[in-house]
Amino acid sequence: MKNYILFICVALVSVSCKKAQVQPTHLSNIDVPWSDSSALHPKNAAFSALLEKYHDKGLPGISLLVNDANGTWVGSIGKADIEKNIPFTVGQVSKVASITKLFMGVLVFKLIEDSAHTGIGYNALYTKINNWLPSSVTGKVPNGNKITLGDCLKHETGVPDVIEQDAFYLAVLNNPNKIWKPEELLKFIYNKPPVFNPGDTAIYSNTNTVLVIMVIEAATHKNHSDLLKQYILNPLHLANTYYQPHDVLPNTVAQGYFDLYNNHTIVNVSNLVTGSGNGYGGIYSNVFDLFTFEKALFIQQTLISQKSLAIMQTYGKKDDTNFYGYGLQKSYIQPNGDYGIGHKGRDLGYSANLFYFPQKGVTHIFFVNYGTDAESGLKDVFKSFVDELVALTLQ
User: Fold this and answer.
1) pTM reported for the whole predicted model
2) Where does the Beta-lactamase-related domain start and stop, copy by copy (predicted)?
3) d(Cα 326, Cα 309) in Å, to the nearest integer?
């Protein structure tokens, strides 16, 4: 691995250790929670070589879990904290980024299935959000009085993405550790022109999930983070999963990095908080907890009903290389028709994947503590890593 020179820009050093939500990383002692047979997997050497190759190309730390007919393989490489020389372990807790949206999609269906207590039924998917949200919000959100809860889950709203607003990033730099409220985020897109008419196409927008959690809270009169614990995290015993800033992060969380100047020098951006905790991002977890979640959802199909899972997988129009269901992505579509269902996570300083390929019965879950939400030389390296991983797992 290269020797990285760490530069911390003025905006970052202004974040005091006292205020920082991600503390300097301590060694994680979370081990494989089953009898590890990775060394016996037929692709053990190939998976290990893949991690070594892309660590050598510059990705700071990687953890990977692959489950197929031959069993479950897990491995890791690199550093969780470069400055402190802390290794990135197989059980390393890192940021799932937009995989948070998959959790929120599942939460909506859990609430629907418990309609006797939540008052939310399947018809909620086709109900306009102004049924729950006040006109002071929907009147200023582009298309706000036209879009449904389902449109938000499927990214078919035409609502601009708060993450793409320059004013928002300036606000983040001026106050890196600010805990954003949903209404504060919406102000960055209020009264802007809609990107398209609802249902005309699908274009990914983080703002959609802000609206989803606002609907959840308005309908149930409960905090969505509490509902996430009640319906998903606690029943699945996801003890190493946290939702920033609603939960205090452990001191074993990996640092997140980005090549801010595109000069092969990476910067620690762990505490640039781009709205975590508002549905579109903020969950931290590890490959083991995500595998438990993924198994219950897609393999055992016990987390939600088959009816709900079938509706989740009702896909709309294509956006780039993805089709969107209700809270999930259909991606990595192969010439022979194979595809993955799950979600990608791409953040300023972290990346992750959770995908299940139903035709092959193959799962891949990974964390990389490098951001691929913005352009950089290492983003191309990361893309090649994902392409090789998908090809290798589907062989």
Assistant:
1) 0.95
2) 49-376
3) 9
